Amino acid sequence: MSRVSSFLASEAIERAGVSLDAVRDALPSVESDTVFVRPAGMIMRRTWATGVLAVTTPWGVFAHPRVMWWWQSGSNDRNLAELVIHELVHVEQLNNVGLVKHATKYLSDYLRARRAGLTHQQAYLGLDAEIEARQIARRVVASV
């Protein structure tokens, strides 16, 4: 089996039957046909918490090998589209406030939650940026 090097976010969204117009309406500053999903290298993944499937950076979305397999095999199109849209929400968040402000709020909210006694998973799931990403991704995919 050949290794997938990358794919466009728009390709994963369309393959799942999700309307790119719905994505554009939800995320007006994001062009899904310019955002690449690339495989995350082992060194990058070692910095991720258990269970993380993708991370958004200013350079694109980096994905776990499982996600790349979903794309290559076509075995999980709806979940792949929801994950890609979730990551596109983070692209929108970065576009709206900038990298430094977004990263500062994300990290400070996470650390505040951990100091309050929440587990990593509880703190992560409670982050405003993550809640917004989950809600928008679910809503857009449910519109199919």
Q: Layout of helices and strands, plus pairs?
A:
Layout: E1 7-8, H1 9-15, H2 20-26, E2 36-39, H3 42-46, E3 54-57, E4 60-63, H4 65-73, H5 77-97, H6 99-115, H7 120-125, H8 128-142
User: In terms of quaternary structure, what is this?
Assistant: single chain
The fraction of residues assigned to DSSP E strands is: 5-15%
Number of helices: 8
- CA-to-CA gap between the ends? 31 Å
Rg from alpha-carbon coordinates = 15 Å
Mean of residue pLDDT values: 94
- Read across the widest sheet, the strand sequence of neighbours is 1-2-4-3
In one word, what is the shape? globular
Structural class: alpha+beta
Helical proportion, percent range: 55-70%
Spans of at least 5 consecutive residues whose pLDDT stays below 50 are: none
| Strand runs, count | 4
